[in-house]
Amino acid sequence: MKVKEVADLVGISVRTLHHYDEIGLFKPNDTTESGYRVYSKNDLATLQQILFFKELGFPLKKIKEIMESPGFDRNEALEVQRNMLLEKRRRMDDMITMINKTIKNTKGEITMSEKEKFDGFDFSHNPYEQEARDRWGDNAVDDSNEKLGKMSKVQQKELGVEFDVIYKRLATLRHQQPESNAAQEGIDEWYIYLNKVGVYSLDAFKGLGQMYVDDDRFTKNIDKYGDGLAVFMRDAMAIYADNRK
After folding, report:
1. What is the CATH number of domain 3-68?
2. Signal sequence span per UniProt (predicted)?
3. How far apart are CA 215 and CA 131, in angstroms?
4. pLDDT tens per residue, range 200-211
């Protein structure tokens, strides 16, 4: 199949396929005498696996590293991807159930307790754990997991409530200068919170802030609290870290 046929089959743009080719992520085995890309069935299977990884939130650079590693096994990867998607579906189902109950609660059809309002949130699984390991090493992540593991479900849910409160406050401050007293007080709360669930040096804290902007997944989730919040937090976290070194 030629590139336009593959694009139409899969539902992605020709430009995306060209980009995958340019970065070495997905190159067809053959080309025509005229230089046009020709994709085989095996190429399409590879593309499918790339899109599974992408759906799970893996950045393209990481997908390339995984699929080029000597120990990569396609069938094993499919098993892992399936399990990850099943877990993602379970969590989404929990969230949908909670949203439906919340809608009924706001309409006065049912009454939800404060605890029930947060039953769908699950902080026991960190989707960015491997990325954190890659950036800061296993010790920081293991310390965080150990702290969380010692907490009860109630304590974990309380952390979820505190997380939400901190982010909502930061969202109200995002139009101020990141070096302002109010902004720095809000970021100080965030730094203290993170060190309740892990061990973050000032350098790691600053690096985390940069990731909020570099990684679209973080940016989208953070900016749900208010457009531009991720950039504001990055700048405020950098100032906070630099002022305390």
Report:
1. 1.10.1660.10
2. none
3. 11
4. 788 888 888 988
